[in-house]
TrEMBL record:
The keyword Cell membrane applies. PANTHER family: INTEGRAL MEMBRANE PROTEIN-RELATED, PILUS ASSEMBLE PROTEIN. This is Type II/IV secretion system protein TadC, associated with Flp pilus assembly. Keywords: Cell membrane, Membrane, Transmembrane, Transmembrane helix. It is a multi-pass membrane protein. Its main location: membrane.
Length: 322
């Protein structure tokens, strides 16, 4: 408090005016915060407003059901709708990024933008509470730290989603060859492509949950009336993998021209396995380069200490003062 009063005093040059401005700022901020929270909570707890929010969201079931969102999620969705990006291309790119990261909820974009907005504000408020406790911190340094904290808080959700996307695509890419092998076995045994996808999804439900969910969604779309080619194209869009896109193109050509689907799957499985082997060999070839820095900073100092240390001690003893 004394730190903030000192800041106001330095800005105004009058201690009485600084105290008045300080009390007024705290009172206005408290009133605005309380009024905003009360209005949002009342709007979400009102049965009619909550029902309208559920209808807009697409949840037509009972508000008390296990799948119904809570007040916090509806609050984030409402904040995201008001303050989210209005650019269609940017919203589409954000939705695609969240889809690749595994967030396929209709309200994922709104929640994402709400978190990106509220998280920096929360960190700014926390910084305003913590920085006055740090002694010797100047006004310029405090402002720079606040800007830095707000920038990191703004970038953190995007970095987290991008990391989730990379990890999910890595798991899907690692599980894809096994799924292709199972598809080859099922197709050669006489099963149709939709039945094959369903069976592979059931077999991989324990070991590879994410790929099993994607294949189950493809099978559900085919049963709903979407063509196999279109359902596979949507699978490629949801995963964001070039390898899946190549498989979709080959299967679409096989279905269109009537060629053997089993042969297509076998050829692509062998090619995909070769790609995985080449990727592993590439990673192995990079190990020598990556070990340079651990060798320099960890092993070589110890080696020089053991090899040259006794000689240096002998030199110091020989030329030192008795």
């Amino acid at each position: 408090m004394d730190y903030l009063l000192g800041l106001f005093s330095r800005l105004t040059g009058n201690e009485a005016l600084a105290r008045l401005l300080f009390v007024g700022a705290i009172g206005l901020s408290t009133v605005l915060a309380v009024v905003t929270i009360i209005m949002l909570l009342l709007g979400l707890q009102d049965p009619m407003q909550r029902r309208l929010a559920l209808i807009k969201r697409g949840s037509f079931g009972s508000a008390a059901g296990p799948e119904a969102p809570g007040n916090l999620q509806l609050l984030l969705e409402r904040v995201g709708q008001h303050f989210g990006s209005s650019d269609t291309e940017q919203a589409s790119a954000t939705q695609l990024l969240l889809m690749h990261a595994g967030y396929r909820s209709p309200s994922a974009v709104q929640v994402y933008w709400a978190i990106r907005l509220l998280f920096p504000l929360m960190m700014l408020g926390l910084g305003l509470l913590v920085f006055p406790l740090i002694h010797g911190l100047s006004l310029i340094a405090g402002l720079l730290l606040l800007i830095l904290v707000a920038g990191i808080a703004w970038l953190a959700p995007g970095m987290y989603v991008s990391k989730c996307k990379q990890l999910r695509q890595r798991r899907l890419r690692a599980a894809f060859p096994d799924a292709l092998d199972l598809m080859v076995v099922c197709v050669e045994s006489g099963l149709a492509l939709p039945t094959t996808i369903e069976r592979v999804a059931e077999e991989m439900a324990v070991s590879q949950v994410e790929l099993a969910e994607e294949l189950a969604l493809v099978n559900a779309q085919i049963r709903a009336g979407i063509t196999s080619t279109e359902a596979l194209k949507q699978l490629a869009v949801r995963t964001g993998l070039d390898d899946v896109q190549g498989l979709v193109s080959l299967l679409a050509q096989s279905i269109r021209f009537g060629t053997s689907v089993a042969e297509t799957l076998r050829i692509y499985a062998d090619e995909f396995r070769d790609r995985r082997t080449q990727a592993a060999e590439e990673m192995g070839a990079k190990i020598g380069t990556k070990l340079i820095f651990p060798l320099i900073f960890c092993l070589w100092p110890s080696f020089f200490l053991i090899a040259i240390g006794p000689a240096m001690i002998g030199v110091f003893q020989a030329f030192g003062t008795p």
